C-alpha cells in the first residue's frame, strides 16, 4: 500500500513552536493527506504523556491513532556534538532524526542518552561525544539494542552533517563504521534528491523529505513529504519500507528559494553601491565589487564535494504550499480567510493536498479562479521564473 508520510516534526517543547493543538493537527493532516506523521520529541516524557492522554496507542501498530488511516509514530530529533577532526578546538554539530519501531525502543534510547549525560527535559536533546569512534559506537549499539531507523536530518543545512561552519565533505567521513546504521538521509528544504544523491557518496540509502514542522499550520505541517510503498501500516512498517528502500517519490520545497542557494553578495553590502552579484556556476574566489570572500551557496558546495560515485535516482516533484500559491495568485495574505477558504475548497476537491501534487489536478480545479489554476499548473510543470536565494536572502518563485 502507498502511504504518505511526514517523519520529522517537533512538539511545543522544542522551542520556536506554538502550543499543541491536537484538533488542528488532525484536521491539517487530513487536508494535507498525511497518513503517518512523526510525533516529534518523543524522548521527552512529558510529551509522551500528553500524546497518550490525547490519542489511543495501538500496541500492534506501535502508533497513536488519530483516526482511521491517520497515525503518529514515535520519533525524535537529537543534536550530536563532537570535536571537529580538522580542528579539535572546535566542535562539529549536526542533527539526527530517530524513528522508533516500538515504545520499548524509545525507553532503551532514553537510557542510552542518559548514560551519556544527555538532559532529556527538552524537546530536542543534545548528546555529546569526545571522538568520532565514540559516536559511531553509540549508534552501532543503538541499532543493536533498539528497533530504530537513523536518519541524518536536513544534511546540507547549517545544522546538517554536511553543512555548518565546520564542514566535512562526506557523511561517511564522520559516520565511518556506523555508516551502515544509516537508514535514510533527509533532504531538508535546501536540497532535492538530485542534489543530495551527488553527495551521498557510497551510501546507498533512500532519500526522504519531511516538514520539520513546529506547528500544524497549512504551510508548515507536510510542507515536504514522502510516498512510501509499505507492507504494513505500522511503525515497523515504516522501518521496513526504509530498509527495503521503498521510497516511491518525495514532494520537495524548491531548493532555489532557500536563503543560501547560490554563491553571491547582497546589494546592501559595503562597497556594492546597490548592486547584487550571484553566480549560477563557477564563482570567482572573491567578490569583484567588494573584494571579500563569498558565502558559499548550497549549489556550489554540492558541486564541489560531490563524489561522482554511482548515485541513486529517486523520483520527486517540486511543490509549494498550496496556501502560498493561492495567496500569491490572489494577491492576499496566506493567513487570510479568502486564501484559506479557497484552500479548503481545492484540497477538498482533490481529496487532499498531497494528491493534488502527486496526481492529475484537473478535477480539483473546478470552479477555481484562473489565476490560481495557472499558479498551480506553473509549479507542477516547473514553468516559473526564479529569483534565487543567496547570501542570506530568500529566493522566490515568480508565478506571473
Ligand atoms: Zn533539525
Ligand atoms: Zn561583495
From the alpha carbons, calculate the radius of gyration and give it in angstroms.
Answer: 21 Å
Query: What small ligands are held by the chains?
Result: zinc ion
Distance between the termini: 38 Å
Q: What is the tally of helical segments? A: 12
Unreliable segments of 5+ consecutive residues: none
Instruction: Provide the spatial order of strands within the biggest beta sheet.
Output: 3-4-5-2-1-12-13-16
Counting copies of identical and different chains, the oligomeric state is: single chain
Helical content stands at 25-40%
Could you describe the largest sheet, including whether it forms a barrel?
8 strands, mixed
Detailed description of the structure:
The protein is of the alpha/beta class. It has two domains: 284 residues, TIM Barrel, CATH 3.20.20.140; 66 residues, no CATH class. 29% of the residues lie in helices and 20% in strands. It has an eight-stranded mixed sheet with strand order 3-4-5-2-1-12-13-16, with helices on both faces. The longest helix has 14 residues. The protein is globular and about 55 Å long. The model has no long low-confidence stretch (mean pLDDT 89). One zinc ion binds next to loops.
Amino acid at each position: 500500500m502507498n502511504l504518505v508520510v511526514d517523519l520529522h516534526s517537533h512538539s511545543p517543547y522544542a522551542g520556536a513552536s506554538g502550543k499543541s493543538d491536537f484538533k488542528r493537527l488532525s484536521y491539517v493532516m487530513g487536508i494535507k493527506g498525511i497518513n503517518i506523521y512523526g510525533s516529534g520529541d518523543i524522548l521527552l516524557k512529558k510529551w509522551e504523556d500528553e500524546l497518550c492522554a490525547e490519542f489511543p496507542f495501538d500496541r500492534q501498530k506501535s502508533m497513536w491513532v488519530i483516526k482511521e488511516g491517520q497515525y503518529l509514530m514515535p520519533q525524535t530529533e537529537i543534536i550530536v556534538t563532537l570535536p571537529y577532526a580538522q580542528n579539535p578546538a572546535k566542535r562539529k554539530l549536526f542533527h539526527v532524526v530517530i524513528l522508533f519501531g516500538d515504545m520499548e525502543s524509545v525507553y532503551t534510547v532514553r537510557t542510552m542518552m542518559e548514560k551519556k549525560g544527555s538532559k532529556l527535559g527538552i524537546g530536542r536533546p543534545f548528546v555529546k561525544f569526545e571522538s568520532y569512534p565514540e559516536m559511531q559506537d553509540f549508534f552501532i549499539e543503538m541499532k543493536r539494542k533498539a528497533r530504530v531507523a537513523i536518519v541524518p536530518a536536513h544534511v546540507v543545512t547549517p545544522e546538517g552533517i554536511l553543512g555548518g561552519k565546520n564542514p566535512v565533505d562526506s557523511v561517511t567521513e564522520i559516520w565511518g563504521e556506523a555508516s551502515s546504521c544509516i537508514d535514510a538521509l533527509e533532504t531538508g528544504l535546501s536540497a532535492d534528491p538530485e542534489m543530495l544523491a551527488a553527495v551521498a557518496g557510497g551510501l546507498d540509502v533512500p532519500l526522504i523529505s519531511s516538514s520539520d514542522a513546529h506547528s500544524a499550520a497549512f504551510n508548515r505541517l507536510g510542507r515536504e513529504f514522502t510516498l512510501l510503498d509499505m507492507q504494513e501500516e505500522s511503525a515497523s512498517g515504516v522501518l521496513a519500507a526504509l530498509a527495503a528502500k521503498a521510497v516511491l517519490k518525495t514532494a520537495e520545497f524548491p531548493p532555489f528559494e532557500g536563503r543560501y542557494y547560490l554563491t553571491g553578495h547582497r546589494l546592501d553590502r559595503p562597497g556594492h553601491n546597490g548592486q547584487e552579484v550571484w553566480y549560477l556556476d563557477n564563482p570567482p574566489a572573491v567578490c569583484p565589487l567588494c573584494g571579500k570572500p563569498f558565502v558559499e551557496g548550497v549549489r556550489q558546495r554540492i558541486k564541489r564535494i560531490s563524489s561522482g560515485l554511482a548515485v541513486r535516482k529517486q523520483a520527486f516533484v517540486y511543490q509549494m504550499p498550496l496556501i502560498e500559491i493561492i495567496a500569491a495568485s490572489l494577491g492576499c495574505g496566506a493567513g487570510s480567510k479568502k486564501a484559506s477558504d479557497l484552500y479548503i475548497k481545492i484540497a477538498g476537491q482533490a481529496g487532499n493536498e498531497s494528491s493534488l501534487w502527486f496526481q492529475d489536478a484537473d478535477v480539483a480545479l473546478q470552479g477555481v479562479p484562473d489565476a490560481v489554476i495557472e499558479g498551480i499548473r506553473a509549479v507542477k510543470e516547473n514553468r516559473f521564473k526564479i529569483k534565487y536565494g543567496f547570501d542570506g536572502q530568500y529566493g522566490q518563485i515568480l508565478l506571473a
